[in-house]
Design brief:
About 25% of the residues lie in helices and about 25% in strands. By secondary structure, it is of the alpha/beta class. It has three domains: about 150 residues, Rossmann fold (3-Layer(aba) Sandwich), CATH 3.40.50.12780; about 220 residues, Rossmann fold (3-Layer(aba) Sandwich), CATH 3.40.50.12780; about 90 residues, GMP Synthetase, Chain A, domain 3 (2-Layer Sandwich). Strands 2-1-11-10-12-13-14-15-16 form a nine-stranded mixed β-sheet.
């Protein structure tokens, strides 16, 4: 098997991807990927070699990804907008031998200090340029080579993640891990996926959600996918209507933006049959607004890079805003309390996951791997959830974001939910800060509607009327925006 074989059996004339206004059929994509495999093999790149991809969500990324997997090498998708020093650290960390560079990554690569990346031999640019580096056209003119057979346990992709705790590290995902997750997601529909679907690829492909859920499932089903390099709410809606998008996945910030645009037509999402949100918690008020205004139920799921990524989904279940649904078929899930026992219904517990989608560990980091994977194969996610009487799962918070005030546990999400009830509050995030008497204190960062006047006491008093005193913020900072990563998660470490 080889994950890149996803595209091999589909009708040659069917559209595979639409990128930069250009449609590429499955037949054309197979030819292009085969030639690019030949070009990479001609450079001496083969099984086990790490090859980075520094491209936005476009044709360059897709062909690079499939060609790298196809020759048995290991794909390392990276953020094309990363600062050069960050990119250098990542390239060195996993010993990257070659890097495929799309137009958006060109400036970053040009700023690289190559002396700091001694194992990097080849830089292949998506556009012709002066200098000693190669470019795609040179490799696409090579004779194609066949797919290299791989085992389920052979490494396919290294994805940098913050891990279940701590600093970023490279999660090792195998061909079998990724294919298992794709099959589990497609199985939710019960029809094997539809080749008539049109997906919308606005999530970055260097993120596991965009890579395996959006791109991987579309290619496995033989569907088309519209690739979008940068999200703009109005142009995105135009593309959705133009291409008659049927499957729409995004981060909560995307849905929140559309929910706040009160002048959008009611039929803005008329062609969309499946809508999902992931990578961070979706505000139930946003989900309700989208449903009431557009008749579109946005389903939430839960996952993490280490699980390739999907663990739970609400697709096909009764609509419950705030719930991430239930575990996918083939996945075992436990909620474990502080004593190592299964948590009771309604009580919070850490999510443990086991299944064929669970990763092999972190690259060259045995200590972090042991902390995340126990001897029985359970992935300790560091995420806290509870389950209700109907078996629906609700995320509570991250273990590492827990605030301890005078020995009492405070989950930031609980405080944030109360603050968001205040009229005029748009966003908020809560963190723990050092306190000389209680160990930690609760601090809130709040974004309000433009022109709205607030003071700290209003927020604190509202919390005091709904929460135990130790859970209430002692300090409130009003800010214009909250720092977020590319998948929409608030960067609490920056706030701290």
């Amino acid at each position: 098997m080889n994950l890149a074989s996803l595209i091999e059996s589909h009708d040659a004339g069917s559209t595979a991807i639409i990128s930069r206004g250009q449609a590429t059929t499955y037949g054309e994509l197979r030819d292009q990927v085969g030639a690019l495999r030949g070009g990479l093999a001609g450079l001496g790149i083969g099984p086990g070699d790490r090859v980075a991809i520094l491209c936005a969500s476009n044709w360059y990324f897709v062909t690079s990804y499939l060609a790298i997997l196809g020759i048995g090498a290991v794909a390392v998708p990276l953020n094309p907008l990363s600062p050069a020093r960050e990119l250098e650290r990542e390239l060195v960390a996993v010993g990257v031998r070659a890097i495929m560079v799309g137009p958006s990554g060109r400036a970053t690569v040009e700023a690289l200090n190559r002396d700091r990346v001694p194992e990097l031999e080849f830089v292949i640019h998506g556009e012709a340029r002066d200098g000693e580096d190669l470019h795609f056209d040179e490799l696409l003119s090579c004779a194609p080579v066949d797919l290299v057979s791989r085992d389920h346990d052979d490494l396919a992709v290294l994805v940098f993640t913050s891990g279940t705790a701590g600093s970023p590290k490279a999660a090792m995902l195998t061909h079998g891990n990724l294919l298992s997750s794709i099959d589990q997601v497609i199985a939710l529909r019960g029809d094997g996926g539809s080749s008539h679907d049109v997906g919308f690829g606005v999530l970055p492909l260097f993120h596991i959600f965009g890579l395996n859920v959006v791109l991987g499932t579309a290619l496995k089903a033989g569907a088309a996918i519209v690739l979008v390099e940068r999200f703009d709410p109005l142009s995105a809606l135009e593309a959705i209507r133009k291409h008659r998008v049927t499957v729409l996945a995004g981060a909560p910030s995307m849905w929140a933006t559309w929910a706040a645009m009160t002048d959008l037509p009611d039929d803005s999402f008329a062609t969309v049959g499946i809508a999902t949100s992931g990578a961070a918690a979706l505000d139930p008020h946003v989900a309700t607004t989208i449903r009431e205004r557009f008749g579109l139920e946005v389903g939430e799921g839960y996952g993490l890079t280490e699980a390739s990524p999907v663990v739970t989904a609400s697709f096909g279940l009764p609509w419950r805003p705030g719930s991430v649904g239930t575990a996918l078929d083939g996945i075992e899930l436990r909620l474990v309390d502080v004593d190592g026992e299964d948590a009771l219904v309604g009580d919070p517990g850490e999510i443990w996951v086991r299944g064929p989608n669970v990763f092999q560990g972190y690259w060259n980091d045995e200590a972090a791997t042991r902390a995340a994977l126990d001897p029985d194969g359970w992935l300790h996610t560091g995420d806290v959830a509870l389950v209700d009487d109907e078996g629906m799962i609700y995320l509570v918070d991250r273990v590492k974001d827990l605030i301890i005030v005078s020995g009492f546990n405070v989950f930031p999400a609980e405080v944030e939910e109360i603050i968001l009830e205040v009229s005029g509050v748009v966003e908020c995030a809560v963190v723990g800060v050092p306190h000389p008497h209680t160990g930690e204190a609760v601090k809130a960062f709040v974004v309000v509607e433009p022109g709205t006047a607030f003071d700290e006491d209003l927020i604190i008093e509202h919390c005091a009327s709904h929460l135990a005193r130790y859970k209430c913020p002692q300090k409130v900072n009003f800010v214009e925006s909250l720092p977020q990563n590319v998948s929409g998660k608030v960067l609490r470490r920056v706030l701290r």
